[in-house]
Amino acid sequence: MKTMVTLGEILIELNAVTSGPLRHVNYFEKHVAGSEANYCVAFVRLGNNCVYIGRVGRDEFGHNAIEWLRGKGVNVDHVKFDDNPTGIFFVQRDYPVPLHSESIYYRKGSAGSRLSPEDVDENLVRGGDLVHSTGITLAISSSARDSVFKAFSLNGNRSFDTNIRLKLWTPEEARTTIMKLLKDYPVKYLITDVDDSRILVGESDPDRASAILREYAEVVVMKQGPKGASLYHDGGKYFSPGYSVPVEDVTGAGDALGGTFLSLVMSGFSMEKALDYAIVSSTLNVMIRGDQENLPGLSEIEAFLKEMDKK
Amino acid sequence: MKTMVTLGEILIELNAVTSGPLRHVNYFEKHVAGSEANYCVAFVRLGNNCVYIGRVGRDEFGHNAIEWLRGKGVNVDHVKFDDNPTGIFFVQRDYPVPLHSESIYYRKGSAGSRLSPEDVDENLVRGGDLVHSTGITLAISSSARDSVFKAFSLNGNRSFDTNIRLKLWTPEEARTTIMKLLKDYPVKYLITDVDDSRILVGESDPDRASAILREYAEVVVMKQGPKGASLYHDGGKYFSPGYSVPVEDVTGAGDALGGTFLSLVMSGFSMEKALDYAIVSSTLNVMIRGDQENLPGLSEIEAFLKEMDKK
Amino acid sequence: MKTMVTLGEILIELNAVTSGPLRHVNYFEKHVAGSEANYCVAFVRLGNNCVYIGRVGRDEFGHNAIEWLRGKGVNVDHVKFDDNPTGIFFVQRDYPVPLHSESIYYRKGSAGSRLSPEDVDENLVRGGDLVHSTGITLAISSSARDSVFKAFSLNGNRSFDTNIRLKLWTPEEARTTIMKLLKDYPVKYLITDVDDSRILVGESDPDRASAILREYAEVVVMKQGPKGASLYHDGGKYFSPGYSVPVEDVTGAGDALGGTFLSLVMSGFSMEKALDYAIVSSTLNVMIRGDQENLPGLSEIEAFLKEMDKK
Amino acid sequence: MKTMVTLGEILIELNAVTSGPLRHVNYFEKHVAGSEANYCVAFVRLGNNCVYIGRVGRDEFGHNAIEWLRGKGVNVDHVKFDDNPTGIFFVQRDYPVPLHSESIYYRKGSAGSRLSPEDVDENLVRGGDLVHSTGITLAISSSARDSVFKAFSLNGNRSFDTNIRLKLWTPEEARTTIMKLLKDYPVKYLITDVDDSRILVGESDPDRASAILREYAEVVVMKQGPKGASLYHDGGKYFSPGYSVPVEDVTGAGDALGGTFLSLVMSGFSMEKALDYAIVSSTLNVMIRGDQENLPGLSEIEAFLKEMDKK
Amino acid sequence: MKTMVTLGEILIELNAVTSGPLRHVNYFEKHVAGSEANYCVAFVRLGNNCVYIGRVGRDEFGHNAIEWLRGKGVNVDHVKFDDNPTGIFFVQRDYPVPLHSESIYYRKGSAGSRLSPEDVDENLVRGGDLVHSTGITLAISSSARDSVFKAFSLNGNRSFDTNIRLKLWTPEEARTTIMKLLKDYPVKYLITDVDDSRILVGESDPDRASAILREYAEVVVMKQGPKGASLYHDGGKYFSPGYSVPVEDVTGAGDALGGTFLSLVMSGFSMEKALDYAIVSSTLNVMIRGDQENLPGLSEIEAFLKEMDKK
Amino acid sequence: MKTMVTLGEILIELNAVTSGPLRHVNYFEKHVAGSEANYCVAFVRLGNNCVYIGRVGRDEFGHNAIEWLRGKGVNVDHVKFDDNPTGIFFVQRDYPVPLHSESIYYRKGSAGSRLSPEDVDENLVRGGDLVHSTGITLAISSSARDSVFKAFSLNGNRSFDTNIRLKLWTPEEARTTIMKLLKDYPVKYLITDVDDSRILVGESDPDRASAILREYAEVVVMKQGPKGASLYHDGGKYFSPGYSVPVEDVTGAGDALGGTFLSLVMSGFSMEKALDYAIVSSTLNVMIRGDQENLPGLSEIEAFLKEMDKK
């Protein structure tokens, strides 16, 4: 079993029970989310370990997050309780764009944003087989950003998902910070998509963007929404197509893909096969509300693929 | 800002929470509806004013309707309270025809059907930039029908949606009454569809039906369900295609289209662009239960179209 | 097994899922109700037969009513389908009076109100061990009223629940009609309460009202809400106290009491014991939404009483 | 009206309100199900009679099943109450395979599995126009299996749905038992699908499998999931294509098809037309949770087909 | 009709659908709330006008608040849209203290807290018959606090509810600020309770606390939870007892009492009668989730009292 | 921190969303339950450790149980996965006895009932500060019963809750088995109630029953339902009264009491104070559906008691 060390903010998600503008949504459904937490659960679901570094509030939502993740097998022994509130967000679905979701954050000054370099236990990070974070952690606060830089300085086996959220910072800030991170600490696995690539390297063509990004990454996984995802590494390019399914909420689908991919690769799968399997994770993920409930184990992925083969 | 004066019945909609025959539906969700009210809210959502002429019951549902519409910005100062009950209807979804909805009315003798010519304030109607009603108001009672004739006699800027409901009258009654209205008071904007055209002018081909109907209307908008809608006026024909989205309930989609179209045209949009935008309104409308909750403003329509452009 | 023949209107009940004014209730729960139908199900639940005479709409709600009652064991072979809609009503709970419920009817011109003397099969009524109806059936239409008079003329074993609903007629109309029925056709069992007694005989004291009413009835059951109920017959007076339980909806509690009482008396229970048991039925009835779902059988009533004995 | 006599187990279905793995499903919706019960209700819905032979528990779920089926018009006078519990199952939807459902049974030792030859009333079975059962009844217990053999020995007008459930027996057991039944008692109507055919005759090509199976059956209906179904009989082959609709739960769709087909054929429809209509039943069936709520009558099927013709 | 001018923050309330610790609550129900908004709606419900001064976010929740209040008849023309998010709070019910509720705020830096003296239109405030605010507005920000001081300096007809929320400030801060306000600007109506009195004047005995507070207020209304409330003014003391009803959520009950009391007094009711009626408002208020949905009009209060008289 | 080792069956609870007979309950809410699991969570909630010995199915419900308990901090490392299904039960509430609940089990042959002496790790049990089980574990199978006997033979610090469930065994079987266990292995803490005492020692008077039972137990806790509970030990008798609160579901209240009592006593609280606190746990427990969600920590219990002191 391999161990991934992850830095980020765990959030409580309030997902609209009915779609449309939130002003007319009467009921919300609670889930545990946060990109890095999603990665962790996906990673653990495929048979490896994940250690979480971060903070939650000393409140009901903070305990909610910890109990849920511990239940899913994530190592939360290093998560700290902080006096600030646990960050939350609401999900508005299918409005104004059908099949898209919008996040409305209440996370400014949250416990999670207080993640700070002192939380980054050096031995813990050095002992991991992989250290992972995302653009969100870079964006939420300077102390959180510094924490990622510190962690990346401690372990050369790095993974990064660009995950640019324009409600948290400007494209300019995103580009400057992420590119600095990648320059200072080139990664093994870079997970990104065409929209983020346009912001980072001014290029949204998957092939051309990846060519540029591969200067900073051994492996680039380029997500392309429902179409599928491409993989670029020394062994060449590989495209894995998506599956067409009814969409309930796309939030977290990219994390499902990334976490599954990393875990399987760490377990020794070929990257191509890992991506095919990861596409299944993200496919199942969009069929429900909630980011972690539908994350599949190996046998579920294989059951899915076996059924698709029949057709 | 332009002002539309509207005559009709506001209804309370009880929409089936689960689809299938109503005998097996256990829960119903309440919404404010009624074709003309839907038009009004769509019209207001796009930045213009709408004055409503009609009656609701002096009961909880009547207050419900008034508070909701006032909240949405509709001018309800001229709605009267009547001793009869507020009309209601149930929506049965996906049965027996998938993706179709059926309305079961409890509106006979309702407050709304007591709309009468004395409710039609002459100065109010004369002062409007547009006076609007539908075939439903013609059908619900003779006094309501007379009210429409009176209002149409007072203001030459008229709009009419044929909206033939065969649970309210026979095809013969519908044809006679609507065609008399159109002959007596030709309209600027006629919104209709192929089924209604067959009843009214014996022709369901969009082009041929519109050619006949344009004798009574400067502009004909011919709705064609999920396929889209066509526009006919002196400037020629224009077809705007629909978008394929998951359907929850189609009730009110035509009103969304009509109200959005009229409001944008009144605001100075070209009719072609107004129709393209109106199609977005009706597309969003079918994705939820309720007729007015998903009616978009300008920025929402543009966000939708921008996303579609990407694809 | 004894057979009761019942005349009345089966209604579909839309009960507010949350309490408060209906304008703010978003969800409604569907049930089958109607006073005489409630009586029938209670009667059958205690081991006897009930034949229903009435009409429902040729619509989903009508089929709903028939399938439900047939499922509960009521004989619905004589219920006719009518072209008018099945009557419905909404229940508003706890507002403006806590623990009280208000019925909002949509039953004017309903199928059920078309009950007519021609529906009253003479042999069927004559063959019953008891013929039963209520003040509601007298109020809904003249043809329904005539049907009750006809049925009561055919069989001397009569039961009547006054059930005056002031939304259906005036106190004056109620008094005139009910007292005429009782004078023409004195009953064996009269079920009433103090409010109805005040209207009928100008007296709301249970003892004094019953003394007057016993001129028209061998047995008077005087309901007194949560306090309990009194029984008056040649054998003297008997009071059975109520039980204090959390109240969800009181609608139908009186019918539960009446139907249980009649069925047990017909089965040979002493009237005093039958009333004690009937109080249990009405107690369970107020704990849920819906009028018929909680109607208990004999073993449930005895389990209830055994538990109360412990205390 | 024709009468079908059916043997099997009525189950209570607990269907997941949200899709995904059951560990994360918080709410379940209760329905009455069981393949043979589904057949019965479909059969009755199309205007014929169905007599059910089987057992339910002397518990709330058992009464639930009886009241529901009696309400739907099924003859349940011959269903026995048994001291064992009514069998139940949970439905997990869309996981791990989108648009598929998985049944999790709690039926071992259930009341329904105690069906025994003594329950099979000889005159009742002989008097039926058709005697029907499925592979499930063969699998649940030896006494249930013997009951089917006994019933099939009593009446030559037999119908059988293979319905192999690999959670109840092995492929080997299924093949041995079903083929013995078919050899001993060739049937008039055999309803099956390609997966079951592979197990039974080692052939999943519809044409070739049917050719083999027709040695034991006058008519073979070969279900092919959403694609449609084929019919094979002396009059040749006929294929009826499926309709593409949003899928909520596929459980029971095959029974809807089979029950509708048999009822219409018994009513004198051509088998080809019966199959076309049966496809409508199964199409409506997958759009909701619950196996019997959406079963259509003749007028609903025709409304569906009329609407499809328009397109 | 009298006009009250109110300053404060409108909040979106997310009320737990099930009681217990929020970590185990899966669904939340959305309502519009905020103490001053509650006051406004109660005030309007009793037939007077209320003008709201405050800010909401330029987001869905902000529009939600505005549309709802406008629908209820509150004058929201002076509410400004602000770039910060609309404040929200969660309600945890019955845990750890039965029948109590706890508010968990996400309102730091909210749009509402940006209320500033520049928002306080001098003519508007001067023109009101009463200017009202609460301790909450004093606590949320210094600019909001200054706004209250400014408004109170402009109009001598002042009303104030102490409403100390210890999650927003310390007892020391609350005492200092509120007492300064009352010293600088003595009020006509002071609404408070025993807990707040202990903090403000070190005295929780209703009589003694009111004696001290009356130095700063012509009238003191001392709320005492479910027990009722006392009134102190030159005319003496009056105690109005509470009613015992099932409690769903006590949030907002004090505002219901205060708003109803003020509106009726402004309409010319005696203060004693106004308090009796106000107790009804707060009684109905605790029976539901949501702070404004159950606010009664005059006829509802009288129906409540009439029923209580019967008992 | 002290460690309790517990043996028993973890169950999935399907609690009726609406009260009344299950035949009319349409929705069920899922929870993790089982008496010993409830004890464990209560024990952990108060700051100590609990190790669980038992089996769950290799199915979704089994994973559900493990993830939930792990999340709550229970040590589930010794729980085994078994090929049989995870046991479940349904909860029927308020029928036929108000405020009571009835459990309907589907646990015969369940994974949990396969608990066997080989699962009882000797070092684990010897290392615990307390070993605990209940009468339920004795009743579910002979191997489970033997496991309890084995565990009790390994560690003298024993605790036992009689928890007699008459759906699992006869009074005679219960008495014989439990009394043999207590004779062979006298316990430190015996938790029981008056109904169980009547079965075990023919005495339901708390004092007299406890006097007899104290021959087998240093400490007897005698639960008396909503009235409270009594404590008997060498230090004398102590009675702690219950609190009157609205009851949603009483299932699990006794376990809440027992687990809280044991944990606090192990932490060094006086038994009297521990019982007072334990009463708070059981009080909160009856206010919700679910057995473990409302289990309070120390600060919650103290907040509850502080509020009660005010009154």
From TrEMBL, chains A, B, C, D, E, F:
Cited NCBIfam families: KDG_KDGal_kin
Keyword list, A-Z: ATP-binding, Kinase, Nucleotide-binding, Transferase
Organism: Metallosphaera prunae
The keyword Transferase belongs to this UniProt entry's keyword annotation: yes
Molecular function via GO: ATP binding; kinase activity
Domain of life: Archaea
Organism taxonomic ancestry: Archaea, Thermoproteota, Thermoprotei, Sulfolobales, Sulfolobaceae
Domain Carbohydrate kinase PfkB: 1-296
One Pfam family it belongs to: PfkB
Sequence similarity: Belongs to the carbohydrate kinase PfkB family.
Protein name: Sugar kinase
